[in-house]
Design a protein that fits this description.
Two copies of one chain form a homodimer.
Chain A (H helix, E strand, L loop, with lengths): L1 E6 L3 H12 L4 E7 L2 H9 L7 E5 L7 H11 L4 E6 L7 H7 L3 E4 L4 H14 L5 H15 L14 H11 L4 H8 L3 H15 L4 H10 L8
Parallel strand pairs in A: 1-2, 1-3, 3-4, 4-5
Helix pairs in contact in A: 7-9, 7-10, 8-9
Chain A binds a DNA duplex (30 and 30 nucleotides) through helix 7 and helix 9.
Chain lengths: ~220, ~220
DNA sequence: TAGTAAACAGGTGTTTTTACCTGTTTTTCT
DNA sequence: AGAAAAACAGGTAAAAACACCTGTTTACTA
């Protein structure tokens, strides 16, 4: 018998998941909560702690990483499986560093849900090959001198990337235009597009954006 | 049927392992080699490539990591399981970054050897909880290592630091002057001093300098 | 107490960036 | 073949940055 808790702010999804878990006779649902804060309060006066906590990554008040960190410290026996929606793979490594024992996409197969829970309970963790690759990449990026490589939240064209890099190299529009054999007006246009696309105010903002998203690499 | 190769320079251990593998009817030993170099030569004129390669970490000529890297590039279908003696846990994360699909201690149980091989063949990888913890720690260390910023090679005054930070926050001279209750001319003076002291050409250079030396921290 | 560094601030002018336009050509995708 | 996206480039003007000058006040310290 595995004691399970579900922490997710999306009520419909949570209820659905709860029902799904109840359909499996091996599981006992000990509690469910809307966010990390409520869950911690519930834990405080609970007799039997859950073995497994299925925790949504994105929650108001206290998100998955934060909750994960607190649980790791105060309730190390609880194994946390992170639930995420597609496209949040870039946070995988953060999760694992924070102490997650498993990682599941919300659109996974039911069998995968069950096998992840069972494996995590028995072996102590469960990750699929996808998670592993995400971790590998995260390590690689760190190697390059970046703490974390967030994927670029907007679509920059190839040309915009090139010009952004050159801006980071302290080149002026005139210098960039020379190097690329284009008019300064064109460079200007790209620069303007970069500012609007990124939502930055000026050059300083562009440089930070470039570093943040790995477009420009700072040599230490 | 799983095709297996063994690469290990310790002849006795290798022969023992080979016999052990032969005892399992699910496995076919396609080749064995003393080191990475020989193994690569063997692979070159081999008809059926191995599915799994059990590779010792410490080998003369070409060690586990190097071989791993080459295999990953030239024979991506071969899944590498690293064999190591006790006390080499600190290299685990290196292995995984290099593309290892599994990690086994040489003093492990035979059942663990078999389950690792089977899991790696079926799922694509297999790690135990110990490996996972090693990876977690490695990430942590890397994180801390990055905080060891280079010490600032020049003497910036307190005021210059403050203004440099504000420049990184995308503030203009006018905005900085407002916040600090000083004239824009003064801010301008500080900015000029920053440029001459750091040897930068413009704002982009200042931002990169600030990040490089930990004066400004990029939030990821 | 004289010297020095730092913060302050004014003047003047140039260069660069930023912000609006406008449009054409080329490439890419359907 | 037609639509859409990207790269290209011109005009105008204001805002900001950059350069080089001047000087005062304050504080520390040799």
């Amino acid at each position: 018998m595995i004691n399970i808790a579900v922490v997710d702010d999306q009520n419909l999804f949570r209820e659905g998941l709860v029902n799904l878990l109840r359909s499996n006779p091996d599981y006992t649902l000990v509690t469910q909560a809307e966010n990390g804060k409520i869950f911690l309060e519930q834990l405080a006066d609970m007799v039997t702690l859950p073995d497994i906590a299925l925790v949504d990554m994105n929650m108001p008040q206290m998100n998955g990483v934060e909750l994960n960190t607190v649980l790791r410290r105060n309730y190390p026996s609880i194994k946390v499986i992170i639930l995420s929606v597609h496209g949040e793979e870039r946070y995988m490594s953060k999760m694992i560093e924070a102490g997650a024992c498993g990682y599941l996409k919300k659109n996974c197969e039911i069998t995968e849900l069950f096998s992840t829970i069972n494996n995590t309970y028995q072996i102590g963790f469960h990750f699929n090959i996808e998670t592993l690759n995400a971790m590998r990449n995260a390590s690689k990026y760190r190697k390059q001198g970046l703490k974390n490589m967030n994927s670029i939240p907007i679509n920059l064209t190839e040309r915009e990337m090139v010009i952004l890099k050159m801006i980071c190299d302290e080149l002026t529009n005139a210098e960039i235009s020379e190097k690329l054999f284009i008019s300064t007006r064109t460079v200007d246009g790209h620069r303007t597009n970069l500012l609007t696309k990124t939502g930055c105010k000026n050059t300083a903002g562009l440089v930070i954006f470039a570093i943040k998203y790995g477009i420009y690499e700072v040599k230490f």
